[in-house]
Each structure stands twice: as structure tokens, then as C-alpha cells.
From TrEMBL:
It comes from the Bacteria. GO terms for cellular component: cytoplasm. This is YqeG family HAD IIIA-type phosphatase. It comes from Defluviitalea raffinosedens. GO terms for molecular function: phosphatidylglycerophosphatase activity. SUPFAM superfamilies: HAD-like. PANTHER family: 4-NITROPHENYLPHOSPHATASE-RELATED, PHOSPHATIDYLGLYCEROPHOSPHATASE GEP4, MITOCHONDRIAL. Pfam families: Hydrolase_3, Hydrolase_like.
Length: 169
């Protein structure tokens, strides 16, 4: 059961994604969470660094889809400049939106990765959909209250995950 909450990998930030490693694993589609994965939840627009980051992914041939539990307004505004595939009110950890994202990108569970900051939405949801997951450290300590509640439990899961990962390495 606990394994369903473990990510495939855990990295400090989206900028630590290893593009050549993703290519080596034949990854073609990348699903990104928005809030606290790309920007703090209360920041409306991506900055130049984020815009450039997605341009680089696209020029490397990756398909990208934003999958957020946040509102239509939030997601549309954030995606204005990026012009990526995007799904709002995703109801993560339900796997429905991840499947929809793969349909949009024309990828499948074996060549897609979910990248997000939350164990109980991004990682659990991705795992349930059979997709590889990469957990990132939240970009900000500011959280919406619903998220705040989950962070304590999350820390426990991450501790166990890291202990097991050390054993394997
Ligand atoms: Mg998030």
C-alpha cells in the first residue's frame, strides 16, 4: 500500500529534471502539476525561467500537459503564454485526468511521467494510473489550507521512501 505513495524519483526542483535521462528511458510525455511545482499557488503567471524551461522541453521533442486541481480561471491564466495542453479541476489523485492528458499528448503510461510536489495527489494519482512519477520539493512553503493538512503525513511518507531508497542504492 505504502509503495503506491512512493515516487519513481525525488528531485529538488523541475530544473533538476535530467532531459537525457528521460530520453534514455524513451519518455515522450510530461505531465506537470502547477501549484508549488512550477510556481507558488498564489503566483498567477510563469516567469521567464519557466517559459524558457518549457520551450527547451518542446524543442527536445517532449509533449507537455499541465494537470491541476485548481480552477479553470487559474489554469487558463497561467497557461496564456505557455500554450501547453492543460486540464483544470483535475480531481487528482483520480487517474481520469492523467488518462485524458495522455490522450491529448498521444502518449501512453510507459512513455509518460508525472511531475508534482504532492504525494497524495500527483504521486498517488500517477501511480494509480501506472505512470512513472517524479516528486519535487515544493517551490514555496506557502500552501492552501487543504494542502497544509497533508504536508505532515507527506513528510512521514518521504522519510520512509528516502530510507528505502538509500538501502537500494
Ligand atoms: Mg501542487
Amino acid at each position: 500500500m505504502l509503495k503506491q505513495l512512493f515516487p519513481t524519483d525525488y528531485i529538488p526542483s523541475i530544473f533538476d529534471l535530467n532531459i537525457s535521462e528521460l530520453k534514455r528511458h524513451h519518455i515522450k510525455g510530461l505531465i506537470f502539476d502547477i501549484d508549488n511545482t512550477l510556481v507558488p499557488f498564489d503566483v498567477a503567471h510563469p516567469d521567464d525561467k519557466i517559459i524558457h524551461f518549457f520551450e527547451e522541453l518542446k524543442s527536445n521533442g517532449f509533449k507537455v500537459c499541465l494537470v491541476s486541481n485548481n480552477t479553470e480561471e487559474r489554469v487558463i491564466k497561467f497557461n496564456e503564454k505557455l500554450k501547453l495542453f492543460a486540464i483544470h479541476k483535475a480531481s487528482k489523485p483520480k487517474s481520469r485526468s492523467f488518462k485524458k492528458a495522455m490522450e491529448l499528448m498521444n502518449t501512453d503510461k510507459d512513455n509518460t511521467v508525472v511531475i508534482g510536489d504532492q504525494i497524495f495527489t500527483d504521486v498517488w494519482g500517477g501511480n494509480k494510473a501506472g505512470i512513472k512519477t517524479i516528486l519535487v520539493v515544493p517551490v514555496s512553503e506557502r500552501d492552501e489550507w487543504v494542502t497544509k493538512i497533508k504536508r505532515g503525513l507527506e513528510r512521514i511518507v518521504i522519510k520512509i521512501y528516502e530510507r528505502q531508497r538509500k538501502k537500494v542504492k
